[in-house]
Specification:
418 residues; 12 strands; 17% strand; 18 helices; five-stranded mixed beta sheet; alpha+beta
């Protein structure tokens, strides 16, 4: 993030402190002077800003893709800390307000490590970097990166497949779909997952325009209204990404005062979709990625991952998430993304938001506010292994109300592209 003296005033009295270093580096909280009043805001980041340093961003995104698809190990390229560090660097690059000419200017402003300054300089000079070249020369790393593109295959399973002799999607297609060779030593359940992922591999990777995704979303919205349901298109579509390979839709009841069974509604939604589209079901169940933080939030969310065809030869990946009405705003916020924006916001809530906390503790045993895709609550965390105790829950009607409650300036969905 470049210095914007006319718009932003950092807390200069404590700038050198560890606290403000963390605020600036890890979740980009700005303190603006607005008509004599301090106003906190997470840095806005847009798609347009991300194009100003596209060469750097493309290289770091490829590095991150390698990290997400290769097995982690301590003290290696693929440690959890390295993956998080790459996400932070990408966040900085995406919200930088001018073309970057050297790594030093980024490090000077954002307190990043010298190794990232060296990497940035190398990319600016060569268009790539040694770290990325090394990964591209490794058959194992390249294969794992390729195999993780298959739905249902993570980094551990990708490595297992590579060790069993598979290094490309086409090899697995031949082995699993055409049954010319058995998929060796992977187990029946994994083979079924592979079969589904490979059958719809092309549909899931095909990119569709923003207009096309909004059109499909509009058609589904019309179909769901007679059921007394409301929906919101989220993900990259809500952030106005020009192209995307999936459509995320959040569904809930219009009447928040009546009982709401997410599993019954999920069946009703599927019945309507099957009647009006050609639908292939990839997976149904609870969203394993929606961490509840150990808090009993009430009902779960019901997720359906689908391939939807509407008469054309091309299928579209559509993820439909049915949530209780009191989870609506938090589910929309979480599914709109980006992942790093959500991580920054959750970190801000745990570390900075201390309303009514008698003995605030950002981590470990203690009292703090906790934000998830299911809600916002002030929680006392006892000793490890004991159930958190909810002291207070915040129910809101809109994202704007939530941001105001947290003391943050509201950011539009297309300003969250970090």
């Amino acid at each position: 993030m470049a210095t914007m003296a006319s718009e932003s005033i950092w807390c200069t009295a404590e700038l050198a402190s560890e606290h403000d270093f963390v605020r600036k580096m890890f979740w980009g909280i700005l303190v603006r002077d607005v008509k004599g009043k301090a106003e906190k805001s997470i840095d806005p980041t847009t798609l347009e800003m991300a194009t100003w340093n596209s060469k750097l961003i493309d290289c770091f995104e490829e590095l991150l893709e390698f990290h997400k698809s290769c097995p982690m190990a301590k003290n290696s390229y693929f440690s959890p800390s390295s993956e998080i560090a790459l996400m932070r660097v990408l966040s900085v690059l995406r919200r930088w307000s001018k073309p970057i000419t050297s790594g030093d200017e980024v490090v000077r402003e954002m307190y990043m490590g010298d190794k990232w300054a060296t990497t940035i300089d190398e990319i600016l000079k060569r268009g790539t970097c040694e770290r990325l070249d090394i990964l591209k020369r490794s058959k194992q790393f390249v294969a794992c990166k390729e195999l993780c593109k298959i739905h249902g295959i993570g980094r551990k399973r990708a490595l297992q497949l590579f060790q069993n002799g598979y290094s490309s999607v086409e090899q697995l297609r031949d082995a699993v779909l055409n049954e010319r060779a058995p998929a060796k030593n992977i187990g029946q359940n994994v083979e079924e997952t592979l079969r589904t992922g490979l059958e719809h591999f092309d549909d899931m990777k095909r990119m569709f325009s923003l207009e096309d995704r909004l059109t499909v979303g509009g058609e589904i919205k019309v179909l769901l209204e007679p059921l007394g349901l409301k929906m919101m298109v989220c993900g990259g579509t809500r952030r106005r990404k020009p192209n995307g390979h999936d459509l995320d839709i959040i569904v809930t009841g219009k009447d928040a005062t009546t009982s709401f069974d997410v599993w019954r509604v999920q069946k009703e939604v599927m019945k309507v979709l099957n009647k009006n589209f050609c639908v292939a079901l990839l997976r149904q169940g609870k969203p394993s990625f929606a961490n509840s933080g150990g808090i009993a939030w009430g009902e779960d969310h019901a997720v359906s991952l689908l391939i939807v065809k509407d008469g054309s030869a091309c299928g579209r990946r559509v993820d439909i998430v049915v949530v209780p009405p009191d989870h609506w705003v938090y589910a929309i916020l979480g599914w709109t993304g980006t992942t790093f924006f959500e991580r920054n916001l959750r970190t801000y809530v745990a570390h900075e938001f201390k309303l009514n906390c008698v003995k605030h503790q950002a981590s470990g045993p203690g009292e703090r506010w906790q934000l998830t895709q299911k809600g916002l609550a002030r929680v006392i965390h006892p000793a490890r292994g004991e159930t958190p105790i909810v002291q207070e829950r915040k129910f809101v009607e809109s994202e704007e109300e939530l941001f105001e409650f947290l003391g943050l300036k509201y950011l539009e969905p297309w300003e969250r592209e970090m």
